[in-house]
């Protein structure tokens, strides 16, 4: 497996170097803006602006930087097919599990490495921006990494299954479109049930009836939506935030195991044919 | 590794595709020998080799390599096998240095020293990406990689196709050196029969997914011959005595498979030596019996 991991690392190194360069540029820009907010032109703007700009740049540096770092997840599943290496690797003394495992292990190593760099980045950002250390940010950074790793893992399983990159991209797009539509539908139903608590049914009442009901309650529609996000959405977000320490690894391991199983099965079924 | 007499034993190998069937293929490659696997394009050479290498799963049949069942001992067997293909199967961005590092971790018996020795011998650069290699260089690279982990069996699928005669000869010399060790064996598929005529100990002919002939090359070449006769004499030759006949305005050329018997039966007839090329062409046309 080590040999196959080396191949993965070597073939994807250019892409990773480019991402790393963009990441460093982003960090540099964030630091420049911070310096300007303390000593430069931004500091001279009206009261509060410098603080706001600083705060935004802090989050960009911490979380934007993390997103960039975690976008180094990549693989050689398609290049292996195109180069004919898929045929060759089936003549090597390695199992299908090792072949797929090398891809997954490489990305898992990158998840660990990128998380570590993102944590160091967080500490540096705290020092530069004079922010207090928030332990939850460590979990949030790891969660971002897990989400991006999981997306890549699903993509790998689909690619092993369908083999063609354009078909794999289409399946991914379809999958995420369905996920988005499902989420939008779910959010809509959820919001309606919240409206129900005010005696309003979005689906049953027309606009005039709804406005009459709101007038009777003495509140506007905007207020209900704001309360919905404050009460309901934030409650769920807080729950995720509190439970992310076990939720992220569980989802990560579960989806990795499932994707690994699908990938190995697909590779076994078709052998080394390209 | 236990004692074995055949490096490869294939019995009743069958693989069905839409429009093509590899039908009950059986042959052996004796240990310490080089076997030429001959057939026209689409005859089933690559399907057989891919089954041997575990690239495709056959529908039925038994494959034994080094006297052991391939299915049950795939990983152990593959440690002692090398494969060379007509197209280089490595990523074009890689170079020999990285390939060495990679294969060092895959083959326990990998020798970087041997690999570098072959690279020097073939004048292949260490750090140049494979995308800048010529076809001959790519083939030499594959052979260098194949011979650097002490493989006991070399399986080549059309490895010399598309190479110029100088490079082909150089490669054939390497194979002869490789066979100096009597534990090493080679299965080499090709439709360039002149190469096989030079180096093969035994040959197997395949056509339309079926084995036509298999045996020692010298025996096959000795037993076959081209009987040359006029059109009028041709009509007196029994149809069971020849594989197929090439007819022309001036006469007929018939491939006979029992030269000694024909020499007795048709005394006075001119019977020339048949080449592997002749045997392949005449056997491919055996169903038509007469062709021009």
Give the structure's gist in a few sentences.
Chain A has 11 helices and no strands.
Please give the structural blueprint.
The complex is a heterodimer of chains A (274) and B (292).
Chain A lengths: L1 H10 L1 H27 L1 H4 L4 H22 L6 H7 L1 H5 L6 H34 L5 H28 L2 H32 L10 H11 L3 H50 L4
Chain B lengths: L5 E12 L2 E11 L3 E5 L6 H8 L7 E6 L2 E2 L4 H5 L2 E5 L10 H9 L7 H10 L13 H12 L6 E5 L7 H14 L6 E6 L2 H7 L2 E6 L2 E7 H7 L1 E5 L1 H4 L7 E6 L4 E5 L2 H7 L4 E4 L2 H9 L5 E2 L1
Parallel strand pairs in B: 3-8, 3-9, 6-7, 7-8, 12-15
Antiparallel strand pairs in B: 1-2, 1-4, 4-5, 9-10, 11-13, 11-14, 12-13
Write a structural description.
Chain A has 274 residues and is mainly α. Chain A has one domain. In chain A, helix 1 packs across helix 7 and helix 8 packs across helix 9. The model of chain A has no long low-confidence stretch (mean pLDDT 86). Chain B is of the alpha/beta class and 292 residues long. Chain B folds into two domains: 212 residues, Rossmann fold (3-Layer(aba) Sandwich); 68 residues, no CATH class. In chain B, the strands form three sheets. In chain B, strands 6-7-8-3-9-10 form a six-stranded mixed sheet, with helices on both faces. Chain B has a five-stranded mixed sheet with strand order 14-11-13-12-15. The longest helix of chain B is centred in the middle third of the chain and has 14 residues. The relative contact order of chain B is 0.15. The model of chain B has no long low-confidence stretch (mean pLDDT 89). Chains A and B meet through helix 1, helix 5 and helix 6 of A and helix 2, strand 6 and helix 3 of B.
């Amino acid at each position: 497996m080590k040999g196959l991991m080396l191949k993965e690392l070597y073939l994807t190194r250019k892409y990773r170097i480019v991402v790393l360069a963009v990441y460093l540029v982003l960090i540099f820009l964030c630091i420049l803006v911070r310096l300007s907010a303390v000593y430069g032109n931004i500091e001279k703007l009206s009261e509060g602006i410098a603080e706001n700009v600083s705060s935004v740049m802090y989050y960009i540096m911490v979380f934007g930087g993390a997103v960039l770092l975690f976008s180094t997840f990549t693989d050689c599943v398609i290049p292996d097919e195109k180069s004919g290496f898929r045929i060759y690797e089936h003549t090597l003394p390695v199992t299908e599990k090792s072949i797929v495992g090398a891809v997954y292990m490489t990305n898992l190593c990158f998840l660990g490495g990128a998380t570590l760099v993102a944590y160091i980045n967080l500490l540096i950002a705290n020092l530069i921006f004079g922010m207090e250390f928030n332990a939850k940010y460590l979990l949030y950074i790891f969660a971002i990494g897990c989400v991006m790793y999981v997306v890549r893992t699903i993509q790998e399983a689909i690619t092993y299954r369908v083999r063609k990159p354009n078909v794999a991209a289409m399946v991914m797009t379809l999958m995420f479109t369905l996920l988005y539509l499902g989420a939008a539908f779910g959010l809509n139903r959820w919001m309606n049930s919240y409206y129900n608590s005010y005696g309003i049914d979005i689906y049953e009442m027309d606009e005039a009836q709804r406005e009459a009901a709101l007038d009777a309650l003495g509140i506007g529609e905007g207020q209900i939506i704001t309360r919905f996000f404050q009460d309901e959405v934030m409650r769920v977000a807080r729950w995720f935030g509190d439970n992310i320490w076990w939720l992220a690894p569980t989802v990560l391991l579960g989806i990795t195991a499932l994707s690994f199983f699908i990938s190995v099965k697909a590779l076994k079924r078709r052998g080394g044919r390209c | 590794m236990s004692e074995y007499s055949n490096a490869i034993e294939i019995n009743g190998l069958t693989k069905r595709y839409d429009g093509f069937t590899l039908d009950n293929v059986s042959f052996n490659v004796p240990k310490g020998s080089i076997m030429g696997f001959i057939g026209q394009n689409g005859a089933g050479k690559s399907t057989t080799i891919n089954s041997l290498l575990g690239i495709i799963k056959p529908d039925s049949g038994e494959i034994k390599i080094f006297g052991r069942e391939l299915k049950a001992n795939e990983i152990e067997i593959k440690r002692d096998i090398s494969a060379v293909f007509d197209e280089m199967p490595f990523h074009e961005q890689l170079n020999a240095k990285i390939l060495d590092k990679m294969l060092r971790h895959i083959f326990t018996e990998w020798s970087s020293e041997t690999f570098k020795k072959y690279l020097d011998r073939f004048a292949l650069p260490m750090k140049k990406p494979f995308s800048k290699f010529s076809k001959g260089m790519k083939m030499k690279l594959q052979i260098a990689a194949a011979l650097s982990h002490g493989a006991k069996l070399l399986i080549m699928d059309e490895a010399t196709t598309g190479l110029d005669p100088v490079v082909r000869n150089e490669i054939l010399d390497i194979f002869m050196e490789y066979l100096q060790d009597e534990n090493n064996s080679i299965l080499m598929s090709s439709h360039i029969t002149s190469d096989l005529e030079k180096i093969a100990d035994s040959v197997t002919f395949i056509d339309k997914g079926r084995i036509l002939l298999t045996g020692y090359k010298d025996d096959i070449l000795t037993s076959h011959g081209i009987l040359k006769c006029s059109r009028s004499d041709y009509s007196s030759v029994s149809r069971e005595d020849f594989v197929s006949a090439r007819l022309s305005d001036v006469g007929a050329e018939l491939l006979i498979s029992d030269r000694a018997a024909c020499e007795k039966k048709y005394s006075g007839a001119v019977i020339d030596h048949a080449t592997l090329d002749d045997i392949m062409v005449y056997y491919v046309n055996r169903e038509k019996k007469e062709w021009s």
